[in-house]
UniProtKB/TrEMBL annotation:
It comes from the Bacteria. Its EC number is 2.7.14.1. This is Protein-arginine kinase. It comes from Lentibacillus populi. Catalyzes the specific phosphorylation of arginine residues in a large number of proteins. Is part of the bacterial stress response system. Protein arginine phosphorylation has a physiologically important role and is involved in the regulation of many critical cellular processes, such as protein homeostasis, motility, competence, and stringent and stress responses, by regulating gene expression and protein activity. Belongs to the ATP:guanido phosphotransferase family. Pfam families: ATP-gua_Ptrans.
Amino acid sequence: MTLEHFVNNAISPWMHDEGPDNDIVLSSRIRLARNFAKVSFPLAAEQEELEEILQFFKTEYAHQTFQEYQDLEFISIPELTPTEKRVLVEKHLISPHLAKHAQTAAAVISKNEQVSVMINEEDHIRIQLYFPGLQLDKALEKGFEFDDWLEEKINYAFDEARGYLTSCPTNVGTGMRASVMMHLPSLTITRQINRMIPAINQLGLVVRGIYGEGSEALGNIFQISNQITLGKSEQDIVGDLQGVVKQLIEQERNARARLMEQSGKRLEDRIYRSYGVLKYSRIMESKEAAGCLSNVRLGIDLGLIKNVSRNILNELIILTQPGFLQQYAKKNLTADERDVLRASLIRERLKLEK
């Protein structure tokens, strides 16, 4: 396994699998924050300490396999080009923070890209594990197993009263962030999402855009995650999140049915216009592309558009991001050049569906 594998393929292997409720839920993620005991946390650590942690991971885990997570690749972030870093962020394999503060940072990524471990981000270790569709319980189970495997060789910073100790106080306790990526076009079209977000926030959950904190909900994709990590068990946190997600799934399906019943022709027109724009445009900005892809994915889910893969939204949302476009072109591109290439790639991808 090489870096080239991770940066040249827009869709991760695990995304090809079908998951429960995957007409609305794109993915489920469990992230666990951990730190080495008796070592300064990354924000206060000396460079020598952080380099020792990098060397430990490279020695102990590079090209190792745990269960189905094969051939763990150790990737030194400082050795990456700006484009390669951006691609890994766009694929959610590393965070924007890790990419920006990369002097003593690395990632360990499994061959199927289902597991990635960020090293020396805000914490020494941040384990991420993804599953398609709504599979939070399974993601948590597998996350625990992978965490236990790491802990066989690592003494974690842990307090009996407070739980896992982390750089950010909001992560203390379980050290866990559970999140679900959802495609909610009908709730957005009907503007119901605007009143739902404040209600969700009051339940101790947070609604963010596609790339997490501070990002935009491109293509009507929203990330729902827990805010509270202290005072609740991991199972309770996942249960609370899953309950809200199931309500959102029901609300989105109801909104789709109402739109078809009350404004069917308008909805069809919106979907097919977007399909036409994607098929024939020669210039395409990223925001417009995301919106059109969202409408086409809705059309696929409603059975209006045939012979186009449901994975097209997942794939093209990533493939048409700036980092991937420049990786594909093998050079830096101006904004105008990216818009032209984006349109071209979308046209070619749609031709493959026939």
